[in-house]
Task: inverse folding
């Protein structure tokens, strides 16, 4: 840490020495600056101050003292250059009406955004209920039509030379916990194997199909006839057991659509609530005669 401090303060003197003459010789009236209590000034230029405590917060963790000092030196130089450039920009752009307007509009939008966030946070402190989700789903089934097949099941990829192939074939069509544990244990003990359990969550059929060797017949077509499939190439045997299947054009399962519905309902409620807030504010302003319409027809 002492090495870092020494390098930083040494760099400050170097920086002053190498700054272009035009930067340090410009006329500048120095005004008294009230430094922030409890902070250590490192660099000061034209009324702006960079403190050691603020500099330390931007230095990435894990750097050596030398690398930290190098990062700090570049940061300080960039900081000084930005201050000088900004102040030159102010002096060379005398007409600031358009900029002031943009700043005012941006400040206004920030206030509105923060106020809206607080209102929504207070109003919608509780999540969308399961009943609301199910009601929306049942009332809007036309919105939930699949454009790609979904499946639930189990996928296994096992080396052809495995001595446990017969046992795995027997287990992989079972859906009890004992069978799952046995399969999982086998996969852990054999790094070349791959097991993916997705009985509890829907997966895109295309995600599963890319795990298989090249197929002559689309996987979706095969699943119309049977739900437990086996494939083989020169190195591996691929086992797929599909417990549930939802084809293209079918209704999207509620379980798969739940999070999207929750987002739709939340957004809809928020939009309706903010519309009501603004309408109430307008109505209140009219009732209290706060609005003044000029050039109103009599």
Result:
């Amino acid at each position: 840490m002492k090495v870092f401090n020494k390098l930083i303060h040494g760099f400050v003197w170097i920086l002053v020495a190498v700054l272009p003459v035009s930067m340090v010789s410009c006329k500048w009236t120095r005004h008294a600056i009230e430094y922030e209590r409890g902070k250590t000034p490192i660099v000061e230029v034209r009324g702006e101050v960079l403190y050691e405590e603020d500099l330390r917060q931007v230095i990435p963790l894990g750097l050596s003292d030398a690398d930290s000092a190098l990062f700090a030196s570049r940061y300080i130089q960039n900081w000084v250059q930005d201050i000088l450039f900004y102040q030159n920009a102010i002096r060379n752009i005398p007409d600031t009406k358009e900029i002031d307007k943009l700043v005012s509009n941006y400040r206004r939008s920030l206030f509105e955004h923060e106020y809206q966030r607080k209102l929504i946070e207070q109003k919608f402190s509780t999540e969308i209920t399961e009943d609301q989700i199910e009601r929306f789903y049942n009332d809007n089934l036309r919105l939930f039509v699949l454009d790609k097949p979904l499946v639930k099941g189990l996928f296994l990829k096992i080396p052809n030379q495995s001595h446990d192939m017969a046992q795995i074939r027997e287990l992989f069509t079972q859906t009890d916990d004992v069978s799952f544990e046995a399969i999982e244990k086998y996969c852990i003990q054999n790094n070349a194997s791959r097991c993916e359990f997705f009985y509890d969550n829907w997966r895109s059929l295309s995600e599963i199909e890319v795990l298989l060797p090249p197929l002559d017949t689309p996987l979706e077509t095969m699943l119309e006839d049977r739900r437990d499939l086996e494939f083989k190439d020169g190195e591996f045997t691929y086992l797929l057991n599909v417990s549930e299947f939802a084809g293209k054009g079918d209704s999207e399962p509620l379980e798969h659509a739940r999070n999207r519905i929750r987002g739709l309902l939340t957004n809809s409620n928020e939009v309706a609530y903010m519309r009501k807030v603004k309408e109430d504010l307008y109505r209140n302003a009219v009732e209290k005669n706060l609005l003044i319409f000029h050039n109103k027809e009599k």
Residues 254-287 form the longest helix (34 residues). The mean pLDDT is 84.
